[in-house]
């Protein structure tokens, strides 16, 4: 579980543990990881500090997981950085940081984990993208580009590794009650006309809505699905 200390990652971890999984929770901050481990108070949670911008660090973590647990049945990617601003205010460095922390991070973790999944003859990957992949938000264009690329990457990996019994699916959250969503909302006040349509279900989603979708996509109940992009957005995406 990569990005385990985030608003969505923490709940996904909790639900994975509740379902009986052994979880390796990873993120950048060791303090946050320790707090999560103690909060879940489960022996089945290991932690692994990693900066997903560093390919070599990811490889070390993946090798460590295989050494300790013998296999990696599933990989869930949920990293991102919260940086929302108008297009004209974002320089190359900002774009690189956002793409590096999400798109390239997902590329690196998949590239590191898939060879082990091939060897063990099975694997399930769920990548979290977002509604902004299909519905651009003016203050979230780098994140939206990363999400669109994550969708394409995931479909491509699903095609590439179908014969290896590896499924790759995407959960694309709409607005979810979280610090990240509040930050996006306040950035939109600069451009009220660009505010996205609210959820048709008349309420903002909760992190547990995303966790439910992730668990279902990791389970055999969704065994016929791969390369799927599942919006969990309360119907708020305006396009098809
Ligand atoms: N929340 C929403 O409304 C929403 C809507 C649409 C899509 N999404 C997507 O859902 C995913 C999770 O969102 P969230 O709200 O849970 O975000 P969040 O609370 O900001 O959590 C982000 C997670 O990514 C980790 N991370 C960031 N940079 C990292 C790095 N360089 N190395 C390792 N870990 C790193 C963070 O760990 P540290 O804190 O230790 O850095 C944290 O665990 C993101 O991909 C986001 O784009 C969220």
Counting DSSP H or I runs of 4 or more residues, the number of helices is 8
Going across the biggest sheet, name each strand in turn: 3-4-5-6
The stretches of 5 or more residues where confidence is low (pLDDT under 50) are none
Number of strands: 6
Under CATH at level 1, the class stands as Alpha Beta
Largest sheet: 4 strands, parallel
**What percentage of the residues does DSSP assign to strands (E)?**
5-15%
As a percent range, the share of helical residues equals 40-55%
CATH second-level architecture: 3-Layer(aba) Sandwich
Q: Could you give the order of the helices and strands?
A: HEHEHEHHEHEHHE
Average of per-residue pLDDT values: 94
Number of domains: 1
The general outline is globular
Can you tell me the CATH topology?
Answer: Rossmann fold
Given the helix and strand composition, which structural class is it?
alpha/beta
Distance between the termini: 30 Å
Radius of gyration: 17 Å
Q: CATH H-level name... which superfamily?
A: NAD(P)-binding Rossmann-like Domain
Heteromolecules bound: NADP nicotinamide-adenine-dinucleotide phosphate
């Amino acid at each position: 579980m990569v990005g385990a200390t985030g608003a969505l990652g923490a709940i996904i971890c909790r639900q994975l543990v509740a379902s009986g999984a052994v979880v390796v929770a990873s993120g950048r901050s060791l303090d946050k990881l320790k707090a999560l481990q103690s909060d879940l108070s489960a022996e089945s949670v290991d932690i692994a500090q990693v900066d997903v911008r560093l390919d070599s660090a990811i490889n070390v973590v993946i090798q460590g997981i295989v050494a300790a647990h013998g296999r990696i049945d599933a990989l869930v990617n949920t990293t991102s950085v919260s940086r929302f601003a108008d297009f004209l205010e974002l320089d190359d460095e900002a774009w690189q940081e956002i793409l590096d922390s999400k798109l390239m991070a997902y590329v690196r973790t998949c590239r590191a984990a898939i060879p082990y999944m091939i060897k063990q003859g099975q694997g399930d990957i769920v990548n979290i993208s977002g509604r902004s992949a299909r519905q651009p938000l003016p203050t979230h264009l780098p994140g939206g580009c990363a999400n669109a690329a994550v969708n394409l990457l995931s479909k491509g990996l699903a095609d590439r590794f179908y014969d290896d019994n590896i499924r790759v699916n995407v959960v694309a959250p709409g607005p979810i009650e979280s610090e990240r969503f509040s930050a996006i909302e306040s950035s939109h006040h600069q451009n009220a006309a660009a505010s996205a349509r609210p959820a048709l279900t008349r309420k903002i989603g909760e992190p547990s809505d995303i966790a439910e979708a992730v668990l279902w996509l990791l389970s055999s109940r969704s065994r016929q699905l791969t390369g799927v992009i599942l919006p969990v957005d309360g119907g708020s995406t305006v396009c098809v």
